[in-house]
Automatic annotation (TrEMBL):
HTH tetR-type domain sequence ranges: 10-70
InterPro entries tied to this protein: Homeodomain-like_sf, HTH-type_TetR-like_transc_reg, HTH_TetR, Rv0078-like_C
Domain of life: Bacteria
UniProt DNA-binding region: 33-52
Keyword Ion transport found: no
Coiled-coil boundaries: none
Keywords attached to this entry: DNA-binding, Transcription, Transcription regulation
Protein name: TetR/AcrR family transcriptional regulator
Length: 199
């Protein structure tokens, strides 16, 4: 069966993203020349420029793929239980565990803000993470499980706080210890958001 032009295009893009992701994670954006990416992907330099304009365009695609995957992992954790504290703590644990991975630390937390700029990076964070938080916190609030407050503002502040925790992990000399510390602090904060239903 002959492959269509769209199939070939999708295959080329997937090869570039996979090669870029592996190389960016291992050495960082600045240390990886475009020529090395296209060699690793088995495509021409023209293919890179055709699909992504330049190395930075490819990096954005890699960063967005990583964000999409992380969001799906966190969403799965949130959907696993109707108990809000358990859901939040489990989802937080999934996200903080991901922050220990080399690809997340290097691409998402170190290079992305510098390469794409804070404005663009915040847009990407908001596109993937903010909607998930608005939905989850809204559901918990509607069920009377959280203290009533503006949901979108709460979600934005939770996202900003969690991303700051992620950056602390990425920049730490002992990421595992920092992960444990921020999880403890955020767990206490999340618990304080719950509505007291004891009478």
């Amino acid at each position: 069966m002959r492959r269509t032009q769209q199939d070939r295009s999708n295959s080329t893009k997937a090869a570039l993203v996979a090669a870029g992701r592996e190389l960016f994670a291992a050495r960082g954006y600045q240390a990886v020349p475009a020529d090395e990416i296209v060699r690793a992907a088995g495509v021409t330099r023209g293919a890179l420029y055709h699909h992504y304009s330049d190395k930075q365009g490819l990096f954005r695609a890699v960063a967005e793929e990583l964000e999409r995957e992380l969001t799906e992992e966190v969403a799965a954790a949130l959907a696993n239980t109707d108990e809000p504290l358990v859901a939040m703590v489990t989802a937080l644990g999934v996200f903080l565990d991901a922050c220990l991975r080399e690809d997340v630390r290097q691409i998402s937390l170190t290079d992305a803000p510098a390469v794409l700029g804070w404005g663009v990076w915040r847009e990407i964070e908001a596109e993937y993470g903010l909607g998930l938080l608005v939905d989850a916190l809204g559901r918990f609030m509607d069920a009377g499980l959280l203290v009533p407050q503006p949901v979108r503002a709460l979600a934005q502040l939770v996202l900003s706080t969690v991303m700051e925790a992620a950056r602390m992990i990425a920049e730490s000399e002992d990421p595992a210890a920092t992960r444990a510390e921020v999880e403890q602090v955020l767990g206490v904060w999340f618990f304080a958001l719950l509505r007291n239903t004891d009478g």
